[in-house]
Records
---
Amino acid sequence: MNIENLLKYQEMDRKLHNIEQKISSSPYRKKANELSSIVKKAQNRASELDGEAEKIIAEIDDIKEKYNLNKSKLDELLACGVEKMTMDDIEKTNNLRSKIYSNLNILEKMLQKSAENVNHVLAEFNKMRKLNEDARNQYLACKQKIDEETKNLEPEKENLKKELAVLEKTVDNELMTEYKKKRNEIFPVLVELRGDHFCGGCSMELPKVAISRIKEKGVITCEYCKRFVYKK
Ligand SMILES: [Zn+2]
């Protein structure tokens, strides 16, 4: 099989491949990926914080309820006249009153702590929102640069594709189909046998039986990297 034409095709295809590489390895693309993961993380954290805030607010409601309950008990006690009480009753009432005061004190502290927690959560939430917004704007700017880069390279790409379409007709059909399947995974697809035994792509030593078939078949497939190997 004549592989000269496939070699010519591959040389032209190399230019297209280089452009494709240039597009996919653009620093803007890398930056855009980083920014998109920052946006995702900020959004996840914000929704976690949302859940935390909800929990704290429920806690505060609970504390307030307990506080009001204790407060009304205290009001009840304070309204009772001591005139008709026995000494025993007065002592019990005093004990109860100081217990309620202590409860109210504890609940007030809890309320204060919860309020502080809510403030922390809110502050972090705002920080996340700002981070998300900044990253999103930067992402859009990157995206625009990527689009510009891609658009600028488009005419050259189209020209190469046209030339490749012409060259394609000179190559064996089956070989061309296989080549196209491989070219996005491994490039170059077609490599020369190196030092009589080794794949010119991955440098692995190829079996003698396979090498002996190169002459008759034109190319063999490297069992390691799946490239086409030819011999001059
Ligand atoms: Zn190989």
---
Amino acid sequence: MELYWGDLHNHCGISYGYGSLANALTAARAQLDFGAVTGHALWPDMPPRQPGFEFVVDFHKHGFAKLAAKWDDVIAQVNAANMDGEFVTFNSYEMHSRRYGDYHILSPAPDLPLVDGDAPAALLAQLDGRPAFAIPHHVAYVPGYRGIIWERFDSALSPLVEVYSKHGCGMSDDGPFPYLHTMGPRDGRTTVRRGQALGHRFGYTASTDHHAGYPGSYGDGRLAVWADAKTRPAIWDALLARRTFAVTGDKIACSFAINGAAMGSEISAGERQIVLSVRGCDALDRLTLYKNNAPWRVIGRHDLEPRAGDVFKVRLEMGWGWAADGYEWEGRLKLRDGELLGVETCFRGRSVLAPSQEMADDDAMNALDNRIMAQENDVLDWRCTSFQNHSTLHPSTAALILEIRGDAHTTLEVLLNGVRARASLGELLACSRGVHMKPYNAEAFLLHRAIPEWAYTLHAAWTDNAPALPCDVYDLEVRQVNGQYAWVSPIFVES
Ligand SMILES: [Zn+2]
């Protein structure tokens, strides 16, 4: 099977977000293999319009009406963007709910109707047998304040749960990426771990929940599937089978199987042969295999054995500066005495999570021309945009991750907007180096430290002969040194 990357939950100007659907689809295609662009459709138990709450009620009602008026055109555009083997799309819309928590409906049906109802099940029941499911998202908000209500969750309707997005990470109440948005804190009663402890069986996704038409925006959540082909039916089958994992941004490739059954599987076994492998994008810091919500085996950075090799990853990061509306980069990399094996883009759109009173709709918002223009064995040309960092704790940079075959003498020559830099892999294995675009107070770029292959790849195998519960649940968390994560869908083993 092949690994494909996507974003199944994000917004633009088709409802109460910003930017055109066409630009959103262009951004998705530039970095992903599949995607949906989600319309905000309904909020059956929206609080009444009252003093101090007028703006919130009004932008929701306006957004829902906008989507309803354009729905036929929206699905026509989304369907037209679906091209087997190149880029796969799904149709999608979202229901807010205090009673159930928020869900988005996802379907491969080209004629998905926009229906009304007061529960995810009520929406799905009206689809006349079209394939569809409902994914709960930003689950860890306070119950009644649009966090998930696990007692009303039905895994038959929801094989997947979104565990990470711009809202933060909902895996647990003590993990990284706490919720900091205006919707309030993360609550231990609604986390993913809580849902598992209650016995629900589901797989993991991440998506951006971006609100200005930039699906796949780096750092805001992406998901991967293992699928037979890059087609609507094959990726749909992978989603249904929960052959999925969630990442924050870096495309950390993970495989995980027990007795040959892939992530997401339900099997029966006394003895469990557990096999996993990870190919990261930065040095691996910690891999945690959970059994029944508790760490069962941990591999740390210090456990990885250095070994000789000729493959390295180097990250080239661009940004900083003052350009809140974007700074455009045009770059060329030339490799001397080395081979460019691959490149991964870490492009972002301007960061927007919710409408604000100051911001007007603008079709051209995030109409960015972020792309690789040419790639050869020893040359790479690209164009991208970075933004002034959102805060000193929230990067808005753009980056490329280069995989290079070479040795200490291999040299990277970078030309970015007329500024040149040069460093050998030997120098970059020792330390990173930054380059400013002007003498003071300007954008900059950074050649990160080079990472040898042994530090970003890992294979592990264990045998577990000790069933603990009628159904034991195994899942995986990967953390890189740069703080990027992957969360791999569980395997459910009955004894
Ligand atoms: Zn949303």
